[in-house]
Amino acid sequence: MGAISGSPGAGTAHASAAGGSRLGGYVPLRDYAVIGDGRTAALIARDGSVDWLGLPDLDSAAVFGAVLDADHGGRFTLEPTVPFRAERRYLPHTNVLQTTFSTARGAVRVTDALTLHDEAALTPMRELVRRIDGLSGSVPMRWSVRPRFGYGTARTRFVRRSGVPVATAGTKALAVCSWDAGAPACDGRAISGACEIPSGRSALIAMPFADQEPLVLPARAECEARLDDTSAAWRRWARDRRYPGRWSEAVMRSLLTLKLLVHAPSGAVAAAVTTSLPEQIGGERNWDYRFSWVRDSAFTLAAFLQLGCPAEAHAYFWWLMHASQLTHPHLKVLYRLDGGHRTPERTLPWEGYRGSGPVRTGNAAVGQLQLDTYGELLQTAWQYARAAGHLDADVARRLAELADLVCANWRQPDAGIWEVRSEPRHFTQSKMMCWVALDRAADLAEHDLIPDRHLARWRTERDRIRAFVETHCFSDGLDSYVRSAGGTDLDASVLLGHLYGYRGGHRRMDVTITALADRLRHGPYVERYSGEDGLSGTEGAFVACSFWLVESLARTGRRLQAVDLMEELVGLANDVGLYSEEIDPATGDFLGNLPQGLSHLALISAACAIDAADDTGAAP
Q: pLDDT, tens digit, for every residue of 239-295?
């Protein structure tokens, strides 16, 4: 467990065990844990502050956004009024967070959850519950709820309903119900309170929320019961999952994190909880990841199928089929969680995490051509068909039409998997995934799962793609596949060609794995690529790339190397087992949005690959 120590109060620095601090209102990104209810999710810092929460859904405007603007973003603080140390954990096999604050006057434990509801009962639309239990001595606590509706742009009114303080803005309302946590006061900007928690006593704060429906004010007993039921529900869900391998704790935490990214109403899986957390402090690489990317689809379905989540696999596949139908025959790079594809970028008037602007909502990458998405979608459909044994007739027809589109379009340059904002290129990974698309289509047709009238063309174009890649995308001088045709830069994404079954020249992928490990790897960290991408500044090491290297090593007879690297990577998670998008190799600091679904998906895939590999030892 991690620890943090310091004194509370606005503008006070809280020094953490990792050496970070809340300077200027910001904590290191490593200091965040996440809780969720299948519809939205919150980031909670180790000092007890809820610094991010979109309501009513994960991709909605934030009501707490202090992680992106410490002064204007809003937060829900809960902490001792005296110097403290904090340790935290998730309750085993749950997404319920417990933080223990230790002070010279005693210790308390705070249990946080976005509660799961009984659909048959009258319950709040969303509900954050925070229970404070006295463990020893007597600890003075204080709390403050500072909502900022609509990313801080909406005017907030504070009123009382049945004696309960309520904050409203337009059709949205949240209440602050407290029991034994001190009488709540409102100053027109926040709802606050203070209390003393002796050993053996407890207090409870609940924040029910509503949008375009009545605001339900719950009783304490109901909140207590929902908190306990939420823990039990997570345990029941986790009990039916299966992973008997070496990294069971890391894999199960990754799976529980992935479950938090599942949008329950649709089955979509978000890439991350947050928007605009920077890939470089002070840089411009700040993107909104609260959408579902087709590039993640094959990893997502494989994780669900491998770890015993058939309901999630089925829901996700059908969400993907419905979303892509709306833009058929073309695929969008990403889709909203409700299946829509309009995600215009706009900039918020926030300073950004530690001054890293701009803060963006929406993502303009939706308009890019990324040919690799066709390979990922057909790989996903192929996996689903193998598991289910059949495909819906309309889906089968559309998959065949996608293969036809790949035949017509694979020769075009594109923006590639990394969504570069420079000129399109003939990216190697894009071509490899076009090969995968046609190979999977051919296999589905050969097994009578999709129409086969264009099977001969798919095979012919697949062979032409392979010839292009082998002729133009491999450098004899570098002894490696390169980033793009005719280039000299390297790109870790070509590992995905290997992982999805691209068959190139004899031993070419083996030597590419070696070259990427030699040139893009620094300790456990692997860079995405070398060369420019149309943006200024730099970035951290992309976590998923390191796990892709692990899996590639395991699949090419280098299991011992894979195990060694996997052990290092598992140790890079934060104190509660979470990963962001990137990590700064120099400092170990998290960078980019978090928790990042692809990082956790890649961990799961790498762990399963090692378990399946023969123990053959060193590289050939």
A: 999 898 999 999 999 999 999 999 999 999 999 999 999 999 998 889 999 999 999
Q: Any idea how long the chain is?
A: 620
CB 366 within 8 A of CB 332: yes
CA distance 110 to 80: 11
C-alpha torsion 591→596→598→601, nearest 10: 120
Distance CA 287, CA 482 (A): 26
Phi and psi torsions of 33, nearest 5°: -115, 170
Give the model confidence (pLDDT) of 413-459 as tens digits: 999 999 887 899 999 999 999 999 999 999 999 999 999 999 999 99
CA 557/CA 587 separation, integer angstroms: 32
Closest CA to 574 of 25, 26, 44, 23: 44
Q: What angle do CA 60, 63, 65 make, to 5 degrees?
A: 100
Tokens linked to 91: 């309750």
Question: How many Å apart are CA 227 and CA 127, to the nearest integer?
Answer: 10
Closest by CA position to 397, among listed 320, 328, 314, 315:
328
The count of other CB atoms within 10 Å of the CB of residue 568 is: 14
Token pair in block for residue 588: 């170990």
Asked whether residue 566 carries a pLDDT value surpassing 60, the answer given is yes
